[in-house]
Write a structure and sequence with these properties.
There is one protein chain. With 369 residues, the chain is α/β, with parallel strands linked by helices. It contains 12 helices and 8 strands.
Amino acid sequence: IRTHKQGSQECPMNWSRKAIEKEFVKRPQEPVKPFSYYSEDVTFQNLKANITLAGTLTLPKKEGVFPVVILISGSGPQNRDEELLGHKPFLVISDYLTKNGIAVLRYDDRGVGESKGDFKTATSADFGTDVESAITYLKTRKEINKKQIGLVGHSEGGLIAPLVASKSKDVSFIVLLAGTGIQGDKLLLLQQELIAKANGASETDIKKSIQTNAKLFEMVVQSHDNQKLKTDLKSKLNEIIENDSTTKIPNGMTKDQYISLQVDQIASPWMQYFMKYNPEPTLKKVKCPVLAVNGEKDLQVPPKENLTAIKNALEKGGNKNVTTIEFANMNHLFQQCATGSPNEYATIEQTFSPTALKEITNWIKEQIK
């Protein structure tokens, strides 16, 4: 889940750049060709958005009929491997699942790689229509068991999977990898606080930053008029900067440019949708089996708050097949880690914990028996 930079405190909208400058360590889990299974590059149409999406379908064997999962990426523009910070989590997951008899469709986000469309203007609901078109496509493939189509969503993908499953009879199970259970604005404040703590910010600074952000987020949540929101945010940010001598404006940027950048981030269609979105009503409507997993040290989607909220919402809605797992010592990317801070992601060799892969795969196998 992306966050933004506010006041004197930096939140991890921009950590990727720093990490990319480091030397990439080796990635021992990355599968190397030739693969022991069948892999095909595919394209499919999202008729609602009038775009073509491109991805890779892996099948355990070329001939046969298989259960399938669609992988749904986390926030920010990513390719079919969900490539970030030198890691390719979706390549590792699809390799593992396919070797375990489960077909996998993964695709480039709209506007990324070979997929068409505009990423910048899209919200989580729009990305949901991309998933729906992936399901429609899979139903045309003779190698796919139409009664065993599952969704596996990471981070924002774990918010999108229930959106799709709550409306579609074609989804037979969903797996939420660090999916969200609480409203977006609350999640961002919690995330910012935990990451700032892990990065050694002082209690005073954290408190000040959270108070500031809470005011800005509240403006977004209450807003019904885009133009007015932008004007209000601009004057609020101006006032904050005037009253706070510690605000650092990046070199080579004027105060107005800095404020405009902040406003564009906070008032973007994606961010507005995300902050206002509460997953609970959607989760209550999900009737298929659900596995929700989190890393104990996830600072971006904290496990206690989110797993509890997900479980409660599903059970309130009468869902009888709900499993939640909190994996010890794992971060938001399901890497074994020391602190869980996003600063570690690039430096860890592991891309996705084998323990987590095994648990997830075993659960999927149970659902498709």
